[in-house]
Amino acid sequence: MKFLPIISISAICAVIANNANACTGITMTAKDKSVVVARTVDWAGSKMNNIYVVVPRGHNEQSLLPDGTQNGMKFTARYGFVGLGMQQPEFVVDGTNEAGLSAALFYFPDYGKYQPYSPAMKANSLADFQVVSWILSQFSTIAEVKDAIDNVNIINIDPTASTVHWRITEPNGHQVVLEIVNGIPHFYENPLGVIANAPGLPWHLTNLNNYINIRSGTEDPVKFGPITLRSLSHGTGLLGLPGDFSSPSRFVRMAFFKNYAIQQDTGFDTAMQSFHLLNNVDVPFGTAFKTGTAKFDMPSSTQWTIATDITNRIIYYHTMYNRALRRIDMNKINFANIPFQYHPLDATQQEMIFDIALEQ
Question: Which of 19, 37, 299, 360 could form a disulfide with 320, with the two C-beta atoms 3.0–4.6 Å apart?
Answer without folding.
Answer: 299
